[in-house]
Amino acid sequence: MTKITKPTEVKRDWIVLDAEGKRFGRLLTEVATILKGKHKPCYTPNVDCGDFVVIINASKADFTGTNKAEDKLYHRHSGYFGSTKSEKFGDLLEKNPAKLYKLAVRGMLPKTTLGRAMLKKLKVYAGSEHPHTAQVKGK
């Protein structure tokens, strides 16, 4: 018989990942797996059993593609006519790398309330400092 994990039985850890020198996409697939909880033996698809993830040095990750900073665009739309706004990949990485990481991970998670709850457990910081040292040491 298969054991179904209940939300009250889930034990969450804090995992710190350093993005410096790592490929952007490879790092984020690992992050999505941890947020879903697929690395745990108690994984249940309809329960949020993943861990918290803290990414540091987000602006120092490696990216493939020679012209990606100028060519790749991220679009957003408010729903009104003519309100499409575009932002270049390079500008987004420079101004707000946390938004870039969250957009990429959001595409790898379920498009439900469960996926939104998983995304809230992702914390991204451009530098090496983060305010979650108390949680990480308490493992």
Structural class comes to alpha/beta
CATH topology of the domain at 7-64 and 97-129: Ribosomal Protein L13p, Chain: A
The level 1 CATH classification of the domain at 7-64 and 97-129 is Alpha Beta
* Mean pLDDT over the residues: 92
Helices and strands, in order, run as EHEHEEHHHEH
Sheet bearing the most strands, described? 3 strands, parallel
As a percent range, the share of strand residues is: 15-25%
Spans of at least 5 consecutive residues whose pLDDT stays below 50 are none
The second-level CATH architecture of the domain at 7-64 and 97-129 is Alpha-Beta Complex
Global outline: globular
> End-to-end span in angstroms?
31 Å
- Rg calculated over all Cα atoms: 17 Å
Q: Give the CATH superfamily of the domain at 7-64 and 97-129.
A: Ribosomal protein L13
Which strands sit side by side, in order, in the main sheet?
A: 1-2-5
Subunit structure: Part of the 50S ribosomal subunit.
Protein name: Large ribosomal subunit protein uL13
Function: This protein is one of the early assembly proteins of the 50S ribosomal subunit, although it is not seen to bind rRNA by itself. It is important during the early stages of 50S assembly.
Family: Belongs to the universal ribosomal protein uL13 family.
Please explain how this structure is put together:
This protein has about 140 residues and is α/β, with parallel strands linked by helices. It has a domain at about 5-65 and about 95-130: Ribosomal Protein L13p, Chain: A (Alpha-Beta Complex). The protein is about 35% helix and about 15% strand. The chain contains six helices and five strands. The strands form two sheets. A three-stranded parallel sheet has the order 1-2-5. The protein has a two-stranded antiparallel ribbon with strand order 3-4. β1, α1 (about 25-35) and β2 form a beta-alpha-beta unit. α3 (about 90-95) crosses α4 (about 95-105). The chain is globular, with a radius of gyration of 17 Å.
